[in-house]
Amino acid sequence: QQHREADWSTWAKRWRRVIQAVLPGGEVGAAPWSDPEVRKLCAALWRDFVDPIEKSEGLDAQSAKRCLALFRADRRGAADVAAQLGAAPAEWAFVPAADLLLIVGSGSVGVTVEG
User: Fold this and answer.
1) How far is CA 2 from the centre of its chain?
2) For residues 14-50, b (16+ Cβ closer than 10 Å) or e, as one string?
3) In degrees rounded to 5, what are phi and psi of residue 80?
4) Closest CA relative to residue 73, chosen from 47, 50, 91
């Protein structure tokens, strides 16, 4: 189902412009998931999606926060080798990057085995 640009929220319109600026056009080829710009884009999009939920209150907010808990990383304590080497502990175990890009970039983003 195609949506007209007017159907998108202000938040989505802004992110659609960012996505189009970062990702290559289809005629150029695919951007791999390991591309630093793609990784930064997905992290920023996820953060912008999650932050308002984490700051909100009420019954709906509590339910949404419980759902977000599915994506959070468990604290591993002494078993966390990266933390032992001085890295900050991971906050998220999984970020649904492809899902976010496909939803927000609907009509202009696709995902292939190449990226």
Assistant:
1) 22
2) ebbebbeebbeeeeeebeeeeeeebeebbeebbeebb
3) -85, 95
4) 91
- Cα(4)–Cα(1) distance, integer angstroms: 10
At residue 92, the 3 state secondary structure works out as strand
Q: What is the pLDDT of residues 23-71, one digit of tens each?
A: 988 777 788 889 999 999 999 999 999 999 999 998 899 999 999 999 9
* Global pTM value: 0.79
24 in Cβ contact with 30 (< 8 Å): yes
Question: Could you give the C-alpha distances from 50 to 13, 38, 46, 71, 93, in angstroms and in order?
Answer: 17, 18, 6, 11, 14
CA-derived radius of gyration, the chain:
17
SS3 state at 72: strand
Long-range contacts of 32-40, Cβ-Cβ distance < 8 Å, separation of 24 or more: 32/114, 32/115, 33/97, 33/115, 35/115, 38/115
